[in-house]
Design goal:
Blueprint: E1 3-6, H1 17-22, E2 27-30, H2 32-36, H3 39-54, H4 56-65, H5 70-73, H6 79-90, H7 94-105, E3 112-115, E4 119-123, H8 126-129, H9 133-143, E5 165-171, E6 181-183, E7 219-223, E8 228-230, E9 239-248, E10 261-263, H10 277-280, H11 283-287, H12 289-297, E11 315-317, E12 320-324, E13 333-335, E14 340-346, E15 349-354, E16 368-370, E17 373-376, E18 381-384, E19 400-406, E20 409-417
Parallel strand pairs: 1-2
Antiparallel strand pairs: 2-7, 3-9, 3-10, 4-9, 5-7, 5-9, 6-8, 11-12, 12-20, 13-14, 14-15, 15-19, 16-17, 17-18, 19-20
Helix pairs in contact: 3-4, 3-6
Length: 424
């Protein structure tokens, strides 16, 4: 579980946070902005971008009523343009903001390198965003996943980021479980197959992630090689976050060397125009140049490495599927065929449902059970086992079929659809 730190006026920052984070410890820093008098910097820049894009009236309302209500004043179709405008306002401040923060929060830190462009993340409720699927996909192609769309589980270094990086994930507005960040702390040391997109491969099983409730001014600090992603926003609030990637010492790029990292010591000096050269003058930049050029010139996707085939423990006989009861212990979700999985809710109850999440095809058999719901591992989205529904009303229900515990077996009949049980 993440370690909480309160940066109050009467407390100095803990020493060694960087090394501890690079060894897999996750930190929630409460009051980080207020302690270092930096909150106003990001707020002012954000409101400036919102005002230029959505109008001064929206900016004033966001300032007085909260960023979490942005979706009430800005049309979903206009979220990409607003995000771009905030990018333009925030980017020039990155160097000063990070240098000031690092000097005070990490007094033992070495030379700072940081990604030149911060990440601006507006996630409006999914039920509003869904109609803009194509335009949001286009925005994500240019800016990367996770800015206005939910990002699947990944390590940053699987794609084009350093393996020795630190993420600073700052809550500008409130972040709640149900629209926030997921970090799969239990899987930090695990070896996983991943796709060319940088997302974890189908067939890879994860443990339940850590999620966070954050107030404006809080931040999450974690190693970029922690497996992390986004929750599909299932609550009626906009999540607004600005995150920074940085490294202490020259960034190491194990895969593609794409993002521009700046040496903070050179910024503001006569050599400032060369601040990105130290990070770029590495073999990784030359080695991956043909790869990066081919991606720009050829739209054809490269073939992904395939992980192990999805788990299937059922035996089909006479049109039914039979599972030994010990193969599906209480609290587990198991794949029983290509189309179905079984969730063992209790000693006396098991539920059979379609195997793939209707959002983006995540495999429920690689997920878990929480509060009686089956949870998709890709975006931490729960589906009620009684109704087959998720909190996102625009998503299809999960199909439920007949499932009984008979002696020492769980018996599933895919030909008999279970009736929806209305709750509440």
């Amino acid at each position: 579980m993440a370690t909480e730190i309160q940066f109050g006026d009467d407390r100095s920052p803990d020493a060694g946070l960087v090394d501890r984070a690079l060894n897999g410890e996750v930190f929630v820093i409460r009051g980080a902005y207020n302690r270092f008098q930096l909150f106003k910097t990001l707020i002012t820049a954000s409101l400036d971008g919102i005002g230029k894009s959505a109008g001064e009236n929206v900016a004033r309302r966001a300032e007085s009523e909260g960023f979490e209500r942005i979706h009430e004043w800005v049309a979903p179709a206009d979220i990409p343009a607003m995000t771009d405008a905030v990018y333009d306002s925030v980017k020039p401040l990155a160097s000063g903001f990070l240098t000031a923060f690092v000097q005070q929060a990490f007094p033992e830190a070495k030379t700072l390198y940081y990604e030149e462009t911060p990440n601006v993340r507006f996630h409006i409720p999914y039920d509003l965003a869904r109609a803009q699927k194509d335009s949001y996909k286009s925005f994500s192609k240019d800016h990367g996943e996770g800015k206005i769309t939910a990002h699947g589980p990944h390590r940053d270094s699987w794609l084009d980021c350093p393996s020795n990086g630190i993420n600073l994930w700052f809550a500008v507005g409130p972040v709640r479980k149900g629209n926030g960040l997921t970090i799969y702390e239990t899987d930090y040391q695990g070896d996983f197959v991943y796709k060319n997109s940088g997302d974890i491969s189908d067939g890879e099983k994860l443990h339940r992630p850590t999620t966070f409730d954050l107030e404006p001014g809080d931040c999450v600090l974690f190693h970029t090689d922690q497996i992390h992603g986004s929750e599909l926003n299932r609550i009626n609030e906009t999540r607004f976050v600005i995150s920074f990637r940085m490294s202490f010492g020259k960034p190491v790029f194990p895969n593609r060397h794409y993002h521009k990292y700046v040496n903070a010591d050179m910024v503001g000096t006569p050599l400032g125009f060369m601040a990105s050269l130290p990070a770029a003058m590495q073999a990784s930049f030359i080695r991956t140049l043909p790869w990066r050029l081919s991606e720009k010139l050829s739209p054809r996707p490269k073939k992904d490495i395939v992980a192990a085939p999805p788990e299937t423990i059922g035996i089909e006989r006479d049109g039914k599927i039979y599972i030994p009861i010990e193969a599906a212990p209480v609290g587990a979700v198991r794949g029983v065929s290509a189309a179905y999985c079984v969730a063992r809710i209790s000693d006396k109850e098991a539920v059979a449902l379609s195997r793939r999440c209707p959002h983006s095809g995540g495999d429920f058999a690689n997920g878990w059970i929480h509060d009686g719901a089956v949870v998709c591992p890709w975006h931490n989205l729960p589906f009620d086992t009684k109704t087959g529904r998720s909190p996102c009303k625009t998503l299809a229900q999960v199909r439920r079929v007949r499932c009984d515990i008979v002696g020492s077996e769980i018996v599933i009949d895919p030909t008999v659809k279970e009736a929806v049980v209305e709750t509440g």
